[in-house]
Specification:
alpha+beta
Length: 68
C-alpha cells in the first residue's frame, strides 16, 4: 500500500490525475473549496493505491506526493 499526500491548497481541480489513475480511486471533493475556490482532489480508497505515481507525474502543480 502506498501513502498519498495531497496539497489541497494548491489543487486547481484540473482532473488530470483522476483520468490517469489505473485504480480509479481519485475524485474531486465536492464538500471542500480551497482558498483559490476549487474543489481539490481526494483519494477515495487509499488501501487500493498501488503506488504507480501516475497521478503525481501528471499533476502540473505538484499537488500529489506518493510514498511507498
Amino acid at each position: 500500500m502506498a501513502k498519498l499526500t495531497i496539497r489541497k491548497e494548491r489543487c486547481k481541480s484540473c482532473g488530470l490525475c483522476i483520468g490517469v489513475c489505473p485504480k480509479k480511486i481519485l475524485a474531486l471533493d465536492e464538500n471542500i473549496l480551497n482558498e483559490k475556490g476549487f474543489h481539490p482532489v481526494m483519494i477515495t480508497d487509499e488501501e487500493s493505491c498501488i503506488g504507480c505515481a501516475m497521478c503525481a507525474t501528471m499533476c502540473p502543480d505538484v499537488v500529489i506526493k506518493v510514498e511507498k
